[in-house]
Amino acid sequence: MKGLAGLLVVVAILGGIFLNLYNKVPTLDEVTKEKWSQVQNQYKRRADLIPNLVSTVQGYAAHEKSVFTEVTEARSKVSQMKIDASTIEDPKKLKEFEEAQRTLGGALGRLMAISENYPQLKADQNFLALQSQLEGTENRIAVARKDYIAAVKEYNLVLRTFPGKLIAQTFHPDAKIKETFEASQSEQKTPEVSFK
């Protein structure tokens, strides 16, 4: 009788371990999707702020039309992209999305540089509030990307290590390694600072 009870305890423990491992793959998959949604949420916040920033700066710098056009076109391209949870499953879509966001970020950088030529703009409360919101959003984007990268790392490790790999191949054959963010060559260069 004691042998049977001991066997049942061992089977229950092994069953619990198996269930934990079995559920880990879909759980981590959902975590990566949630983290990706947060990245998208922060990009959306940035896109929503851009028209207000452009309008404020445009009032002071009417002759800087090329930069405004570039920002507007970049924002339009980003907002036209069809982005959903499947984007993280397709490396090509993910790279296209990131490239569009880089273009928008570069255009915003040039827009903010224009403010250096307009001292009265830098003192305007609306501009200062928008600039602060935009800087905060850029920080939130960085944090959301960091969290997504960490979630992808944990998910990919489960799919590549034992026993998670065995469980995934057997019970979750559709589970695939996820792509993460890569900085472009221009983003890896040291920024030039000039005090001319």
Blueprint (SSEs and pairs):
Blueprint: H1 2-60, H2 65-80, H3 91-114, H4 119-123, H5 125-160, H6 164-171, H7 185-188
Helix pairs in contact: 1-2, 1-3, 1-5, 1-6, 2-3, 5-6
Task: Write up this protein.
It is a single chain. By secondary structure, this protein is mainly alpha-helical. It has a domain at 40-143: de novo design (two linked rop proteins), CATH 1.20.1440.20. The protein has helices at residues 2-60, 65-80, 91-114, 119-123, 125-160, 164-171, 185-188. α1 (2-60) runs parallel beside α3 (91-114) and α1 packs across α6 (164-171). The chain is elongated, with a radius of gyration of 24 Å. It starts with a helix and ends in an 8-residue tail after the last helix. The model has no long low-confidence stretch (mean pLDDT 83).
Contiguous runs where pLDDT drops below 50 for at least 5 residues: none
Architecture (CATH level 2) name of the domain at 40-143:
Up-down Bundle
Give the CATH class of the domain at 40-143: Mainly Alpha
Radius of gyration: 24 Å
CATH topology grouping of the domain at 40-143:
de novo design (two linked rop proteins)
Q: Could you give the distance between the termini? A: 88 Å
Q: Provide the CATH superfamily of the domain at 40-143.
A: LemA-like domain
Shape: elongated
Number of helices: 7
The total beta strand count reads 0
* Helical content band: over 70%
Helix-strand string: HHHHHHH
On the 0-100 scale, what is the average pLDDT? 83
- The helix-and-strand class reads mainly alpha
User: Beta-strand percentage?
Assistant: under 5%
Sketch the major β-sheet. none
